Amino acid sequence: xxxxxxAPVALFVDAENVSWCDGAKLxxxxxxxxxxxxxxxxxxxxxxxxxxxxxxxxxxxxxGFDLVQVFHPVARKNSADIHMTVxxxxxxxxxxxxxxxxxxxxxxxxxxxxxxxxxxxKWVVGxxxxxxxxxxxxxxxxxxxxxxxxxxxGKAPGxxxxxxPKAPAVPMAPPVAMTPPxAMAPPVAMTPPxPKAPAVxxxxxxxTARAVPTPPPPPRADDxxxxxxxxxxxxxxxxxxxxxxxxVAFPDLVAMHAALFDAxxxxxxxxxxxxxxxxxGEERITPARKAWSLLRKVGVVQCVAPSTEADSLFxxxxxxxxxxxxxxxxxxxxxxxxxxxxxxxxPYDLDAVRPLLYGxxxxxxxARIEADALRLEFERPELERPELERPATAAAK
Length: 397
Description:
- This protein has helices at residues 23-34, 54-62, 80-94, 111-119, 132-138, 147-152, 232-242, 250-262, 269-280, 285-297, 322-342, 350-353, 363-379, 392-395; strands spanning 9-14, 39-46, 66-69, 100-104, 123-127, 143-145, 301-305, 313-316.
- By secondary structure, it is of the alpha/beta class.
- The chain is globular, with a radius of gyration of 31 Å.
- Helix 3 (80-94) runs antiparallel to helix 8 (250-262), helix 9 packs across helix 10 (285-297) and helix 11 crosses helix 13 (363-379).
- The strands form two sheets. The chain has a six-stranded parallel sheet with strand order 3-2-1-4-5-6, with helices on both faces.
């Protein structure tokens, strides 16, 4: 991570979870974020038609925020966190010059987003009230700001910019006197070339024995990578593709998961894809299909009424939060790689596996995911979809 200094800043506000915030605190927050560099992005997310949102809406408009309208298809379910997460990850990919991310919320579901931004060498500052939830989020940030810090104008630890002392000037050495040029020696007379000796005839070549062709290598199993210099991460990806594992971008997977949980259950495949296209965009039907396939592979989307491909009914099972989804996907990914490594297809290298994970790749989480993958590998040798519980919200739809 680079030393903090003047650099572009992005400020995201989950307006439905900041009832503690007033105009004075917003002014102090914008001033604090602007101290790091130009504040390029200011966005606030909420269903602005809800009662009680007019006061903070007016304050945010005064400060030049882009007010993003978020609809809640399911009552009492806040969808602003998903929109905010997708926008932050998209901004991370499209604007690599932004070094500071301010995220104002009181929701602990943002902890995976904070860790992902920090792993990309960004400075992440969270802001929210003191609570057990904020304590769990605070450990995932570079720094954390409490409301009282904004009220008193105090600086949060690790956020204040410190001037870097300049190195003392080094005195310049006096100019070196130039020596006069040395006179060139007179040219040396060239000696005439020596005549070449006549070429000696070479004896005729002795015929060599005919080379015996080597037999072709034995055929490999479908899930065995070639024994060449292919890097292990590429070999792992090729193995997963042969097993029908779809390669899905992190924002597409998270957005598709949230869209399907908001869809009324049960639903057909085409209906589920249409909900995903609404979130991802009409031109991104292919990423929506890949995300659907991966969610089916890990058992989050399960068939509840088998029929033809077009008429089968599906429902959502398993974790509804983003952290639980990433844990489940990474567990299945490690189980497939571990099974192939145990069969002798290639060595198991943890450093080569880390770039493939969707969630955080710190040692504590990877150790926990490896233990879950080992149980899945031995308890379900065919890597069937696990028996996940259907969420109460999905069952009631």
